[in-house]
Amino acid sequence: MAVRAVTIRNIVFDIGNVLVRWDSLGIVEAAFGLSGEEAKARRHALFGETDIWRALNRGEHTEAGAKAAYVAAGLLTADEAEAMFASLYDSLHLLEDTPPLMERLKAAGYRIFALTDNVREIVAHLEGTHDWWAHFEHVTNSAEVGVLKPDPRIYAHLLDTNGLVPEETVFFDDMPGNVAGAQAAGMHAFVFTDAAQAERDLVSLGVPL
């Protein structure tokens, strides 16, 4: 049986660890001067064990509201909450090889999108800081949709809002579970490790780079 040729028209990028570094352990270490198991335990308490961080990414808190929630839960003092978010913004270092790949794809006529579990204020900061943000035709942000990857609804929102055909769409994310969610939605999807590997993945689908 003949294999139908794949025509790729749309490239979708995650943000954290695809375009900018995301390192919750490093944030905790820098904010509180911790290391080793103590830092890991604090990270788990702030980003994993409690739902506050996930709720912020679902758009249920503003950044100020999340700080207040951490304080109300007894997890941080007000000063610690300010320090943690300051460290967070300081940690968002650009992954310099990815924007040139985006630029080449855009110049070649591909539609470029973002799909991110993110905070409204962080998205606004990145949009105002980086020229490459303008390459995105549309950004699907969990804080606007109200659900996190790999919930099928966020992939459906990306596809439906932008009129994308899943089989013509490629998604890059650093988290295997999120990649699996995109594949379940009918998209081509790859775990992002670096721009060079992403280029090889695209070439494997016939994207001429």
Shape: elongated
Determine the N-to-C terminus distance.
29 Å
Average pLDDT level: 96
Stretches where pLDDT falls below 50 for ≥5 residues? none
Main sheet characteristics: 5 strands, parallel
Radius of gyration: 18 Å
Structural class: alpha/beta
The helix content, as a percent range, equals 40-55%
Strand neighbour order, sheet with most strands: 3-2-1-4-5
Number of strands: 5
Number of helices: 11
- Topology as a string of helices (H) and strands (E): EHHHHHHEHEHHEHEH
- Could you tell me the strand content as a percent range? 5-15%
Outline the fold blueprint.
Elements: E1 10-13, H1 24-32, H2 36-49, H3 52-57, H4 63-72, H5 78-90, H6 98-107, E2 111-116, H7 120-129, E3 138-141, H8 142-145, H9 152-162, E4 169-173, H10 176-184, E5 188-191, H11 195-204
Parallel strand pairs: 1-2, 1-4, 2-3, 4-5
Helix pairs in contact: 1-2, 1-5, 4-5
